[in-house]
């Protein structure tokens, strides 16, 4: 069932269903949020702003009428306060977001300009107005009444604009609502498509299972035949390697022997060129003999039977260090290693792998500083990772994989001796054990060989 849902088609449809449903839900939530926000923002819209200006004018006019009534107030402080409020309200027009929006209404700029002019004319009378002062009130009242029509016209314009905005918002909400409905329908159709696909797949499972069983049986027979052919080819290759190495070693020994005989017979009579040629012949024969021997070891390793048993890594490293004691002392090297785990491995091949790596670390050291080699093991979820690090000459990152290829040398033959097959043998040993062998290096900084051992090789090793 899990594999079925991991099918890309099902994943795409499922994700589409989730996205459609989530989008529709968010759109409906946004509609509700817009409605709620519109209600909350009513007190901050243009209608409210425009109405407050005219409302303050009406309140100022009412207070003026109270000042000239039969029972006027004791002082004119309330009228003066309301006059200041109205004057401040007029000055607010044109400032701030709402004030600037107000000034864009038709007739608003003219109404505010006229209001400022009239208020400046009556300001002195308004400030000095006392209760019962009919003469000053008569000069103030016409100015306030003159502002009634233009300010109310602006209020009507603000109402019209808010109505237009409301119509636009209503249309937008209606569009979003229908979009949400369409998305819900699409989600429903997607769910139906998923159900149909699952039903069709269920009908085809039995047929696919039968076809798969037939193919498996056919491939099993083919693999059995190929296995036999491969085993026969391996046997033939092993026999060929044994015969070839034996037949090649004999003429090489003769070449070395004859070159050595010529060198002794000629003695001092040999010219420098002749002596150089004889030396080259003998060295080349020795090198070719080493390569043939290396190929023979590689062939034997590829066909050797692996005898697994529990092996203590720290014990193997200790034995190798004892065998390489003279080389370690000559290199002035320090080999350090922590407590290493037990693993299931062929002890002979494991020893060969670790010894080849340590010999390389000693060989490719930097002469001007002490050689340091450290072996460590770290457990992880996949198993154990064993690292062998050194501070030698290192190598470029481009050779991380090439150094495991047969006869791959990074230096001239005269600089470092060897056949170039040591790490190839290590890679073959790791491959046959089911391990992963890799390398990292930095020129002048050193190298690190990494051996990843899976859990299967640790389960029965303790």
Describe this structure in words.
The protein has about 450 residues and is of the alpha+beta class. Among the domains are: about 40-145; about 305-455, 2-Layer Sandwich (Heat Shock Protein 90), CATH 3.30.565.10. About 70% of the residues lie in helices and about 10% in strands. The chain contains 13 helices and seven strands. The protein has helices at about 1-5, 10-40, 45-65, 75-90, 95-105, 110-130, 135-145, 150-265, 270-305, 315-325, 325-330, 345-365, 420-435, and strands at about 310, 335, 340-345, 370-380, 385-390, 435-440, 445-455. A five-stranded mixed β-sheet has the order 2-4-5-7-6. α3 runs antiparallel to α7. Mean pLDDT is about 75; it is low at about 40-45.
What can be said about this structure in brief?
By secondary structure, the protein is an alpha+beta fold. It is 68% helix and 10% strand. Among the domains are: 42-146; 306-457, Histidine kinase-like ATPase, C-terminal domain (Heat Shock Protein 90).
